[in-house]
Amino acid sequence: MSVVSKIKRYREARNFTQNYMAEQLDISQNTYSKIESGTIKLTVDRLEQISDLLNVPIEDILSSSDDQHFNFHNSTIEKFYGYIENIQEDNKELLNTTIQILNEQINYLRKENENLIAIISKNNRD
């Protein structure tokens, strides 16, 4: 199996998107796609960055063996964190809108609460 095929398999095992990888590496998604397709040659520095991001020793990526040895506990955790990070990025606008709506509701309820307290206070004085 080629180095780029192994990188793709490790990325997919962690449920990382190409877009997520590109953002972490500070490159475009198109450039990252070219890395995985083998169109762009990997430098040692870039391979180290990818290895760190995937939490995989470079030796495993470069080995001629097709066996992938995963620590399933860590792999599951990595998938979970990758999923959360992708959700946060993909739904950032939706989350911000939701927060804004909730803040508006809180402000409305505060005003209603103040009005009710004023009415109760007035009734207690009468």
Automatic annotation (TrEMBL):
Keyword Lyase: no
Entry keywords, A to Z: Coiled coil, DNA-binding
Sections of the chain in a coiled coil: 92-119
Organism the protein comes from: Myroides indicus
Domain HTH cro/C1-type: residue ranges: 7-61
Gene3D superfamilies hit by this protein: lambda repressor-like DNA-binding domains (1.10.260.40)
Superkingdom of source: Bacteria
Cross-referenced SMART domains: HTH_XRE
UniProt-recorded Gene Ontology molecular function terms: DNA binding
Full protein name: DNA-binding XRE family transcriptional regulator
Keyword Mitochondrion listed: no
InterPro entries: Cro/C1-type_HTH (IPR001387), Lambda_DNA-bd_dom_sf (IPR010982)
